[in-house]
Amino acid sequence: MEKNIYKGLITALITPFKNGKIDETALAKLIEFQISAEVKGIVIGGSTGEGTSLQDEDYYNLIKLSTQVANKKINIIAGLSSVSTECALNKAKILNQSGINGIMCTVPHYIRPEQAGIINHFKLLHDNTDLPLILYIHLGRTGVDLKDNTILKLAECKRIVAIKDAGADIMRPLRLSSKLPSYFTMMSGNDENCIAYSSHGGKGCISVISNIFPNECQQLQNYLKNGNYSEALKLQQELFPIYEAVFAESNPIGIKYAAQLLNLCSEEVKLPLTIARAATQESIKKILIEFRKI
User: Fold this and answer.
1) CA 283, CA 30: separation in Å to the nearest integer?
2) Contact 106, 136 (CB under 8 A)
3) Across-strand partners of 44?
4) Alpha-carbon span 157 to 134, nearest angstrom
5) Which of 164, 197, 223, 256 is catalytic?
6) Contact 189, 203 (CB under 8 A)
7) pLDDT tens, 91-115?
């Protein structure tokens, strides 16, 4: 893989809704906001984008609209989550023809497969698409982690080129970086862990906070890329209060409320998610005022 798109800053984009439907105007505004900040890529229909709450028709329409708005100015990565390998394969085959740049894949949720099943699942996805794949590790959403040997085995597949790691194991890149192919990247999936993850060999962050602070998150990644950890730490300390406020409730509840305050989109979410509680709203609003964003 000569050019790996999975590095630096990638935004896990929220999906804007209006009366239960995708808000196309707001979607364009969100994507243009990311392009203007020179973010490398955006994940569409991931967990932050409520992809599993969308009907298939809406999911594929969201991907189509996003590629049209992006117009090749930013990498479009489709979030692919499902409850079975068969469903994931069907999606992967359709996504392969959709004009996107890559796919971010989770283990099927609720099933809790063994490591052998995880390997077979991702190998089948690999063999049924021409797109570069990033594995998404999120124990809290899928119920299973990927063991080190599983990751090393999957890295032998030429189009499995990265990991989004939303777990608590910040030692993982320290253990694996020297054993993985040189082009393979490991990215933090948690904004609050990105400095620690980078210092252990990580190559970027797939961020939620960059929905509202893309320039600041981009600057943070630039500091890390250049080895300027002292400035990165200062910026991370400034951003930490917004992390705490936004993630006080299940993602993407907090980030959608923040986006509404910034006039990017409505805070509307799909049930069973609910809008932010009053205390959460107050905390987010206070911090955005302090940042002079509103």
Assistant:
1) 23
2) yes
3) 78
4) 11
5) 164
6) no
7) 999 999 999 999 999 999 989 999 9
pLDDT at 252 over 50: yes
Structure-token pair, residue 133: 């794949």
Q: Pick the closest to residue 85 from 127, 57, 43, 48 (CA basis).
A: 127
The one-letter amino acid code at 44 reads: I
Nearest in space to 232 (alpha carbons), one of 194, 190, 276 = 194
CB 255 within 8 A of CB 24: no
Contact 114, 142 (CB under 8 A): no
What is this structure's pTM?
0.96
The question of whether 164 is a catalytic residue gets the answer: yes
Residue 2 confidence (pLDDT) above 70: no
Q: Can 136 be counted among the known catalytic residues?
A: yes
Give the DSSP per-residue string, the chain: --S-S-SEEEEE----EETTEE-HHHHHHHHHHHHHTT-SEEEESSTTTTGGGS-HHHHHHHHHHHHHHHTTSSEEEEEE--SSHHHHHHHHHHHTTTT-SEEEEEPPTTT---HHHHHHHHHHHHHT-SS-EEEEE-HHHHS-PPPHHHHHHHTTSTTEEEEEE-SS-TTHHHHHTTTS-TT-EEEES-GGGHHHHHHTT--EEEESGGGT-HHHHHHHHHHHHTT-HHHHHHHHHHHHHHHHHHTTSSTTHHHHHHHHHTTSS-----TT--PPPHHHHHHHHHHHHHTT--
CATH code of the domain made up of 8-227: 3.20.20.70
Determine which one of 6, 59, 136, 243 is catalytic: 136
